[in-house]
Amino acid sequence: MSTKLILYGTKHSAPVRTVLLTLSALDIEFEFREVNLAAKEQLRTEFTKKNPQHTVPALEDGEHIIVDSHAIAGYLVRKYGKDDTLYPEDFYARAMVDQRMYYEATTLFATCLKQIIGPLFRDNITEVPKEKFEQIRQSYAVLEAFLVETPYMAGEHLTIADFSIVSTTSTLNFTFVPIDKEQWPRLADWLTRMEALPYYAEANGVGLKGFAEKVQSKMPKQYEKLWKKSICGDQKWRVKVM
Ligand SMILES: N[C@@H](CCC(=O)N[C@@H](CS)C(=O)NCC(=O)O)C(=O)O
């Protein structure tokens, strides 16, 4: 590779962690450039020139800039992957991966996570409305259904759909609605298998833990109450990545 890839982002961001997981799985060298969202660095002209959507992640590959975690993950596999396992060339297999990633983008991230995070960090609310937790539970039920026929989110093998979904689902699980292994056994098992990937802790766990600490500081009372009420009383999920 002639030019080193540059990834712009913060490890607290779930979409950024999707890209970190993909880069790790492909064993690609890259430079990480921190974009501090709290300081609104994503709105600075030097960044909006690269990404008018002012979102992270953004990837610089020589003269090209690619934005959106799903587009970046697919690009990385197609350009740098030794084979197509993580993002299959087969039309149907790829459609499955794409569908799962659209679900992540529109529901897990945009509807579940972003709608909680916005008010928490932008409007300084300290209590998340209960219906938001119900939306997360409903999305866990959909993920459980995705896993009925196959061990991974989009088929028999690990793909970038798993990276995308684990970045948000691990965040929702760790901060807002712990995954109850009685209610969603396939989802709990899948998450355990994802956590066992050799690069998981570094690529997803570190940023996830940092993000969870920020959430806890924003809603300390509700956070404790949520975890006390959790059916996963052993807090297995919570300590796993620490
Ligand atoms: N669909 C996008 C979502 C990216 C996104 O919204 N990132 C958030 C951080 S998690 C962000 O950069 N927010 C800053 C802003 O919108 O100004 C992706 O998957 O990359």
TrEMBL record:
GST C-terminal domain ranges (all copies): 90-221
UniProt GO MF annotations: glutathione transferase activity
Originating organism: Ceratitis capitata (Mediterranean fruit fly)
Record-linked PROSITE patterns: GST_CTER, GST_NTER
Protein name from the UniProt record: (Mediterranean fruit fly) hypothetical protein
Pfam families xrefs: GST_C, GST_N_3
Subunit-structure text: Homodimer.
Biological classification of the source: Eukaryota, Metazoa, Ecdysozoa, Arthropoda, Hexapoda
Domain GST N-terminal: 3-84
Domain of life: Eukaryota
A GO biological-process term: glutathione metabolic process
Annotated InterPro entries: Glutathione-S-Trfase_C-like, Glutathione-S-Trfase_C_sf, Glutathione_S-Trfase, Glutathione_S-Trfase_N, GST_C, Thioredoxin-like_sf
